[in-house]
Amino acid sequence: ADLRFVRIPRRQEACVPEAIRRRTTGTGRMRHLKKIQHRFKNGFREGTVAVSQKKRTQSAASN
Fold first, then answer.
1. d(CA 54, CA 39)
2. CA distance 33 to 26
3. What b/e string do you get for 12-40 counting C-beta neighbours within 10 Å, with b at 16 or more?
4. Average pLDDT in the 31-58 region?
5. Is the pLDDT assigned to residue 5 strictly greater than 90?
6. 25 with 33: CB under 8 angstroms?
7. Using H for helix, E for strand and C for coil, what is the string for 4-62?
8. What's the pLDDT score for residue 14?
């Protein structure tokens, strides 16, 4: 028999706040949500190109 994917039974304490905290968002990998949080911080910008460091330093020096 193939025993690689045997599910370990969880304790049925879903209504306890500590159990909810253990299994909530952020306790695992968050493969997709990490990217979404980063995009949210930047205002979901798409199709723009960052200002080059040369232009940025020149404009700061002229001000």
1. 25
2. 9
3. eeeeeeeeeeeeeeeeeeeeeeeeeeeee
4. 93
5. no
6. yes
7. CCCCCCCCCCCCCHHHHHHHCCCCCCCCCHHHHHHHHHCCCCCCCCCCCHHHHHHHHHH
8. 64
Q: State pLDDT tens for residues 6-41.
A: 777 766 666 788 888 888 899 999 999 999 999 999
Parse the chain into domains and list their residue ranges.
11-46
Distance between CA atoms of residues 62 and 59, nearest Å: 5
pLDDT at 16: 82
pTM score of the predicted model: 0.49
Which token pair is 37? 């949080």
The CA distance from 54 to 31, in Å, is: 34
